[in-house]
Design brief:
heterotrimer, A: 333 residues, mainly alpha, two-stranded antiparallel sheet, B: 332 residues, disordered N terminus
């Protein structure tokens, strides 16, 4: 295979030129879905499938990148050097996760620059939970245990997403996330077993992050118009409410090990439906925060924008240097 | 070329897989185009060439993760607990100096995570910060053994005059150019330092240095790469880099000052002045390639080793120590 | 977006899969020309291959952006081997990878189908004969 792609493409036109080709593409796509197999970047795929994936993967990537900020907020004040190292590694991992995911989204034809542009322009969404402030050290524990815990519940099924690059990125992310959740749990455990002020700090954090972390799974199923299509496309494997219920169950068990409590008296296991139930959530607040009225929306975006703008001259310098060296090597050759 | 030696071989000629004989001088060994890269680059390694089937161990092989094995701060703490490692007060004081340098730098570098010029650089600077923090923890753990203190007691409950960091490490991040210049000076200094300390008569210091020198070698490479890019990139990057060099070069002198302690320690430590020539030669090689003259600026009076610090350290400590001091004696 | 970027600013449509610019993971057909697939300052895309231990092949691990090969290697080290995942790394400009055409999967990979005489299991009469 010494031909380049263009040549290959011209031998066997890969662009459906007619309705017939589109029908063949659709048929093949449907076959892949029915087989629960994987779609790869150069396969034919429906416009809407591609758009959905770009939106979901880029939002996911943005969430990782914006999600660095609330935790980076405590790197400089971590109360022990061991915790400082762990937190630094964790926040750094999140940058890595964002990069894996941007790469996956790029295979769909949208460049990272473009996605980043949409983010800093305030046109892209990210997980709204990161618009809440981290006000105490215990928030590092709650984020690790609850927010990362919820993320893992969401992400493990995504390892089997029908789009190959997304699934592969998620495999890598999930492997790394498991340390994130455990370190969060340990932070809370240490606090819960510490002095009364520490224990109170831990309980406060659990109280504050509980509802937002449950809302990370998205709106209730009857108010989630896109879910059905995503499930039909084998991108999403479980509904929002299914995942949320599973998550509540895990929290309810684990919180006892911590010696803390969930701020929701209605959490219970329903023997009839065999699912975990929880009290009502304030979806109005969720929508407000999503719409940009959370405590930290403006701050988070400004910080990202500033890092991006401040780095402009550095990126330009590296690009210019690469061009100069390439020209030099060419001249020498 | 950059004289770091740590350079991943830039894949000369070789077959796709033979990838670059590591002795860049013999690219012509180019193993005949086998895709599988059977020919190891040094030849010293009998080609393990397990038949292709083994290679297919599965897609997971690119994501297999292991903790690796290397000297960790926890190992040193264990040795200290068991009484197997106990420095003299002089060695403790010396470890304190190196540990404080690394700690303060890690604190500074940590600030870049989520603010770097590109996401890849967030990760790169984060790695360097983590390396430095690791060195700090090992060194402070060992130092603390001289006075029955833990790494955290030293980091969080000493007052400013009790810190021993040199002024360079305390300097603010500035823009990316300033951070790179600081890292450039630091890593070339630390490389010379740790390289020599691997032969320290103090076994624990030597062991810490043996781990650190490899990591710092990479830091040299990282900073040198960026010095070249900023110096030869655009007019703006060059002027920012030159400004950074003028800003920070005055603090180079303090790193190489001998004093009574280093004299007393003899072969357990390194006489700072003995490293200056190598530092000058190697940094100069990079600066020459970057078409830059070593800044002609007067050396600043230091004093960090005696507890006389820059104006910056107080703020660094205030931030770093605030939570730990709010709950003295608490466990985290 | 600078005008030099060939990419349309809207999400590409499903009807043109093989044109996906700036794509990573080697699956995507690059444009012709330079390796710079981003904007004026956007760094080009590199595919990263990691050898997890000696004796094994390099396996595709993912991709990243870097201004040149030297930085791509270093970024790959930081991004893809933070947990001892590798002992060797390759980086390749994403648009230097030629890929087979996904739509020819029928014909391109048809030939080996049905040639079971290429496999040892085809030969049943020798079953039971030692060391064969």
């Amino acid at each position: 295979m010494a031909q380049n792609l263009q040549a290959v493409g011209s031998v066997t036109p890969s662009q459906p030129q007619s309705q017939l080709d589109a029908d063949a593409g659709q048929a093949y796509f449907d076959h892949v879905m029915a087989e629960d197999s994987r779609i790869e970047p150069r396969d034919w795929m429906p416009d809407a499938y591609r758009r959905t994936l770009v939106r979901q993967i880029s939002q996911h990537a943005h969430s990782e990148i914006i999600g660095m900020q609330p935790e980076a907020n405590w790197i400089s004040r971590a109360p022990s050097l061991k915790r400082k190292a762990i937190l630094m590694a964790k926040v750094q991992d999140e940058a890595g996760h964002g990069l894996y995911l941007y790469s996956a989204a790029e295979t769909l034809g949208t460049s990272r620059d473009e996605m980043m542009g949409q983010l800093v322009a305030g046109k892209a969404r990210y997980s709204s939970i990161f618009n809440y402030p981290t006000v105490t050290w215990a928030d590092m524990g709650a984020i690790g245990w609850m927010v990362d815990g919820a993320a893992i519940c969401n992400q493990v099924p995504l390892c089997r997403a029908s789009y190959g690059p997304y699934g592969r990125a998620m495999v890598r992310v999930c492997k790394e996330e498991s340390f994130h959740q455990r370190q969060g749990f340990e932070i809370l455990l240490e606090l819960a077993n510490g002095n009364p002020a520490q224990k109170q700090m831990a309980q406060d954090a659990v109280n504050r992050w509980y509802a937002p972390s449950l809302m990370m799974f998205g709106p209730p199923d009857d108010d989630s118009p896109n879910s059905k299509q995503s499930m039909a496309w084998n991108i999403k494997r479980f509904s929002n409410d299914e995942l949320r219920s599973r998550f509540v169950g895990m929290m309810a068990e684990q919180v006892r090990v911590l010696g803390l409590s969930l701020p929701d008296p209605e959490v219970r296991f329903n023997e009839d439906t065999k699912t975990w139930e929880h009290g009502p959530l304030d979806w109005e607040e969720f929508k407000q925060v999503l719409a940009g009225r959370g405590p930290c929306n403006a701050q988070r975006l400004e910080r990202r924008r500033q890092a991006h703008d401040d780095g402009g001259w550095v990126r330009e310098a590296a690009t210019a240097y690469a061009a100069k060296m390439a020209a030099k090597n060419e001249a020498a050759a | 070329m950059i004289p770091t030696g740590s350079q991943p071989s830039q894949a000369q000629a070789g077959s796709l897989a033979g990838v670059g004989p590591s002795t860049g001088s013999q690219p012509s060994q180019a193993q005949a185009g086998s895709l599988a890269g059977v020919g190891p680059s040094t030849g010293s390694q009998p080609s393990q060439a397990q038949a292709g089937s083994l290679a297919g161990v599965g897609p997971a092989s690119a994501t297999r993760i292991t903790p690796g094995n290397a000297l960790r701060p926890e190992d040193i703490a264990l040795e200290v607990q068991r009484g197997e490692a106990k420095p003299s007060e002089d060695v403790g004081e010396y470890a304190l100096r190196l540990g404080d340098d690394a700690l303060i730098l890690a604190q500074r570098l940590g600030h870049w995570i989520s603010r770097a010029p590109e996401l890849e650089e967030d990760v790169a600077l984060g790695n360097i910060a983590l390396d430095q923090l690791g060195h700090a923890r090992s060194l402070l753990t060992y130092a603390g053994a001289a006075w029955g203190k833990t790494e955290d007691e030293l980091a969080y409950f000493r007052r400013e005059p009790e810190f021993r960091s040199a002024h360079l490490f305390e300097q603010p991040n500035g823009d990316f150019a300033v951070t790179i210049v600081r890292q450039f000076i630091v890593s070339y200094y630390q490389y010379e330092l740790y390289r020599r300390l691997t032969a320290s008569t103090d076994a624990t210091v030597a062991a810490i240095a043996a781990k650190a020198v490899k990591e710092v070698d990479y830091h040299r490479d990282h900073s040198a790469q960026w010095v070249l890019r900023l110096a030869l990139g655009t007019d703006e990057s060059r002027s920012r880099l030159l400004a950074g060099l003028r800003l920070l070069w005055p603090y180079v002198g303090e790193l190489f000052e001998d004093d009574a302690l280093t004299a007393r320690l003899g072969d357990a430590a390194v006489a700072p002045s003995s490293m200056r020539a190598d530092f000058d030669r190697l940094t100069n090689e990079v600066l020459t390639e970057a078409e830059i003259d070593v800044p002609d600026v007067p050396s600043a009076l230091g004093g960090g080793r005696r507890g006389q610090h820059s104006e910056h350290l107080g703020y660094i400590l205030a931030e770093m120590q605030v939570l730990a001091r709010e709950y003295p004696g608490a466990s985290w | 977006m600078s005008p030099s970027n060939p990419q349309p600013s809207q999400v590409p449509t499903g009807s043109q899969p093989s044109q996906a610019q700036a794509g990573s993971l080697a699956g995507v057909g690059p444009q012709t020309g330079s390796t710079t697939s981003g904007t004026a300052t956007g760094w080009p895309l590199w595919e990263v291959f990691v050898r997890s231990s000696r004796g094994l092949s390099h396996v595709h691990a993912g991709s990243l952006h870097a201004p040149d090969a030297a930085m791509a290697l270093r970024n790959a080290r930081d991004l893809y081997t933070r947990r001892n995942e590798g002992v060797s790394i390759w980086v390749v400009p994403a648009d230097a990878i030629a890929a087979s055409d996904p739509d020819s999967k029928g014909s391109f990979f048809e030939s080996p189908q049905g040639k079971d005489y290429r496999h040892a299991t085809y030969y049943v009469k020798s079953e039971g004969v030692k060391h064969l």
